[in-house]
């Protein structure tokens, strides 16, 4: 649940709030209606060379005149321990503001201990301060859902607040503050540069713990391939790969 989805968002420093896309279903449901077209996206994350820490996910965004509806499915882990989610969301834009609400079922399964799950609710939004500056926020698990009904252990509740600045048509600068209500805040910063009409380059950093990110996209028509690489000492590197297809006006 705490993961950022989509290699594009991973490449700019593991940021969630901005860069609207089909992956906004997972990252910031309020940004989903700012996607220009309906879309479907699939992704795979391979962490620290361990298959047991891999994530498979799928997201869809369906636009109509009343807003954008989203559906997402994700699975993290291996045979001994895994977590999966499935849910739906809705995002709508009114003037310079876009807001959204998501509901999902989150299940945790552990070998020898069985499984448990609960419903989680998340909110998000983006405000256009001016044509070059955007403010975004997201709150996940606002109801503080538990791992299961048989325990008092609760899943993380995360709050993100970020700014997206476009100094030129080809460059985006992004900064984001993330706070788990039970942990110290985490600062993220990154950039995206459009080298050509069909290729984008990205980089980003995190604090506490310090992490480095880099990535790129190749786009042809309505199809885009994203790749990102991240490094976390001393655990090692993570590779992120996602494929996005869009259709409609």
TrEMBL record:
SUPFAM superfamilies: Porins. It comes from the Bacteria. This is Type IX secretion system membrane protein, PorP/SprF family.
